[in-house]
Amino acid sequence: MEIRLTTQEKSGFFARVWSWLKALPCSFRAKVIELAKSIKELGKNDPRRIIHSLKVGLALSIVSLLYYARPLYDGFGVAGMWAVLTVVVVFEFTVGGTLSRCLNRGFATLSAGALGVGAQHLASLSGEKGEPIVLGILVFLLAAASTFTRFFPRIKARYDYGVLIFILTFSLVAVSGYRVDELLVLAHQRLTTILIGGATCIIVSIFVCPVWAGEDLHELLVSNLEKLASYIEGFGGEYFQDLESSQEVVSKKDKSFLQGYKSVLTSKNTEESLANLARWEPGHGRFRLRHPWKQYLKIAGLARQCAYQIEALNGFIINSDFQIPPEFQSEIQQSCRKMSAESGKALKALASSIKTMADPSAANPFVEASKNAVKDLKITLKATTLSTNNIVDLQAIVPAATVASILIEIVKTVEKISDSVNELANLAHFKTVEATVSPELKVQPHNLLHRGSVQPVLDGEISNHVVIDIDEASDSPENSKENDGNISKAAKNGERVEIV
Questions:
Q1: Which of 223, 309, 377, 446 places its Cα 20 to 30 Å from the Cα of 264?
Q2: Cβ-proximal residues to 402 (8 Å cutoff; 6+ apart), any chain
Q3: pTM, rounded to two decimals
């Protein structure tokens, strides 16, 4: 029995192995197809990733000439490997990221190399026995102090990589100087090759299909404002129901605009990172050298505040179990819908202004209209509260009143965003859109209407016809008032006014 069981176990094991080997080609093929689809999707989402990969390969190929070309190798030797390492560690996706790392690495290497040579020379004055002790103390002090500075938020954000390279370079130069005789030659070769690698990265990053962090931040802010605008503009029709048909205006199947705002809630880290990198970038395209990127962060913070208010507002759409009294709904829905629609239009106008870098004054009428709707709503809520004495009635209108109060806060936030965008327009010198007027119409209409006299039609002439005779000498305030009165009187009587 034991022999038979052992034979069955072996045959079962070999059967499982055979079935696995038999299915291996199909499984391998399926994984290859899945990998190819994921690579295609990744490149399709952002083709710049493929271009960036090619740019890194190009930069590495260029600095490899320090090894491949014999004259260059004779000049730099094995120190040419530092150029290759520099390209690998400093080439970033955006121009700002590459410039940040290259400049940090260059200045850190230069300063740390100089300090390392000075530390080695100072330690050599203490004698053969005291030299390693002095070097150890200096390395400890500088490494500890530099590491502590990395905890400062401002240094952490902009110069963390530079401080790290400073510690590494100083330690290598100071420690290796104890055993290496030609320390200055070694430091010169390393600094030169690092500068060559960094310069190669900068040139390739800027002149070969550049990816600007500033443009990404600009487009991200515009996209976030448009997402908020789409939600706010469609909220009124989504929340309030038609009293006659009791059906929602917006179909439940078409609610994609209700989800777009959620990406605004988690965009803070991306915005701060892009703004930090954009400060390193030179002037390019529509953006000057010292473009006010900090103002973008201010607007983004207000947009995120608006998104949090929308998050609270969205809960009342999800939890639609609240029964709003029809009388109260009919009183507030017009003001709420107007607030929602006008605030959404204002955000769209502001997003369009930032996108085209044009004067944001087109959003002012929408902001004012939403503020007027807020005043009307406050009057309505106050009147409703005073006329409602029943506690049950108050409990019934609380959810709708909460929605109204959140909409009021959103209107205030939109007004703050409008002020911030106007401030950005002043700092960034947005272009002003001027209305084009033909040369014939450049005369002020005020003067045109007040430079003549009204001649009433006599009896027997054609009725509803008034002739205005233009006179250069009739510009006095008395004549102006008289002419205005005659024109208004003629217009009320249905008479046609003709200017001669």
A1: 377
A2: 316
A3: 0.77
Question: Which residue type occupies 306?
Answer: C
The answer to whether 292 touches 427, Cβ cutoff 8 Å, is yes
Question: Which residue in the block uniquely carries the two structure tokens 């100083």?
Answer: 170
399: Cβ–Cβ under 8 A, 6 or more apart, which residues?
316, 322, 324
Report the chain (500 residues): mean pLDDT per 10 consecutive residues.
58 72 80 84 86 94 87 80 91 94 92 87 84 89 94 91 92 74 74 91 94 95 94 82 43 61 91 94 89 95 94 77 68 86 94 93 93 88 63 67 88 95 93 51 39 42 42 45 48 44
In the sheet where 452-455 sits, what is the strand order? 452-455, 465-470, 496-499
Nearest Cα to 257, choosing from 287, 280, 234, 278?
234
Contacts of 195 (CB under 8 A, 6+ apart): 106
DSSP state of 321: T
Tokens of 110: 């230069």
- Distance from first CA to last CA of the chain, Å, rounded? 126
Q: How many Å apart are CA 332 and CA 328, to the nearest integer?
A: 6
How far is Cα 50 from Cα 293, in angstroms, rounded to an integer?
Answer: 28
CA distance 146 to 140: 10
